[in-house]
Specification:
It contains 4 helices and 6 strands; from the N terminus they run E-E-E-H-H-E-E-E-H-H. By secondary structure, the chain is an alpha+beta fold. It has one domain (4-111): 2-Layer Sandwich (NE0471 N-terminal domain-like), CATH 3.30.2020.
Length: 115
């Protein structure tokens, strides 16, 4: 399992920067973190129940709180705070960020929605 060695909140660029013990370093935009929240509210309770998150372009991250030694609880200014971002999930988000974001934008376009 990859463990963070450094976590930095960049309010001006609206990114959460995370360095891992495997040498990986990712800058995850607040909007990206919000639309890919691991919460049931976003992901649903099973395949096909995902809820497309719209209008999150300017969302801000208000608080980053460690949960034990395995996750972060992120609180966004739209009131969302129910997802626990495990180290493994954060590493996956960083690793697959480009593909995930591309898919998200395609789903938004198909739904006729805007960020």
């Amino acid at each position: 399992m990859n463990t963070p060695t450094e976590i930095t909140l960049h309010q001006k660029s609206a990114t959460l920067e995370i360095a891992f013990d495997d040498g990986a370093r990712y800058k995850l935009p607040f909007e990206f973190l919000r639309v890919f929240s691991p919460s049931a509210e976003v992901r649903g309770h099973g395949p096909g129940e995902e809820v497309l998150q719209v209008g999150k372009k300017n969302v801000k991250l208000e608080n980053v709180e460690p949960v034990g030694s395995y996750a972060l609880k992120l609180t966004f200014d739209d009131g969302h705070d129910s997802g626990l971002y495990t180290w493994e999930y954060l590493h996956e988000l960083g690793k697959y960020q480009d593909a995930m974001w591309h898919d998200y934008l395609q789903r938004m376009e198909a739904a006729g929605k805007s960020r």
